[in-house]
Amino acid sequence: MELDKKEAETVSKAIQFWEETNKLSKEQAADLRSSYQLRNSNVDAVAIYALISAISCGLLAFGALVIDEKWIETLRTKWGISENIFGIAFSLLSAFFVFLAKRRQIKYPQARASNEAYNITIILTVAIAVTYWTRSFSDENSNYAVPLFITAVVYGGIAVLLHSTLLWTVMILSLAGWWGAQTYFWSDGGFRFLGMNYPLRMTVFGLAIWASSWIVQRINSLKFVREITYSIGLFLFLLAAWTLSIFGNYADWEGWKILKQGHFWYWAVAFTILLAGLLYYAFKNRLDTLRDLCLIFFLVNIYTRYFEYFWDRTNKGIFFAILALSFWFVGRKAEQWRNKTVSQ
Asked: Where are the bilayer-spanning segments (predicted)?
């Protein structure tokens, strides 16, 4: 069995502990140590970098050849090809790529990274297919949120078929775009929908996605996307809540620029209390993803509040020195708490 460096260290420590506590004999410990070997991390690193380079070059090539509509429109004008034909062509191309991806997944089930990278072609061709299909049936007054919703549904269906977390991620992002565009359409071009501005609307959306991870967990065909749904939903929720702590539920951009930031202090306090509560819950229940994201946004929150309220009033060196000491203290206490927990 091949293990990476971290996995090998964990297994080695476990064997050593069992040997020292007489749970294993020296012979058994030696047999276990010889049952695995360290994976060549350099080869893995080269493979990953090569894969990233290939994806980047592929995206650039696709963008230069397909997304640029000049040559497509030239063909349409010269040969009289309708938008429906392009929609059909890219739909068939998307279906062909889905077939190839499924066959590749069956043939190389261990090559997860390269299989997911291959799905980028599906993402791009589906987007172009839906764009041309919807353009052929719409006019300048149509609701442009509809293509985003159709794209999200297609991505979601293919993600389940291919067990692809990448496609599921793109589906969630497409839904986020649809929600913003659809609420704008429902509000007749206004900045408020049901009394909510954009930051508050996106906070509600992020919360809904985050909460949906508990529903996804209970559906057998969707269990594989539970973690990614949880993480993306939580990130979108915290990101939107952070913007809400800056802008409040204010919908007038020009008016917001005139107001002092202290006018929105209660939004900042609410966001800070929310982060503190989530951090306490995460540490108490050992929820790593929730803990890490909340810590990141807690830092962002502190810097944001400083630039809002204290940038022109305090000495920068003193402020950051106090901030460094406070984080050192928090880190030390967290380490002591972790060691105490492990010893128990």
From this structure: 46-67, 79-101, 113-132, 144-162, 198-216, 228-251, 263-283, 290-307, 313-330
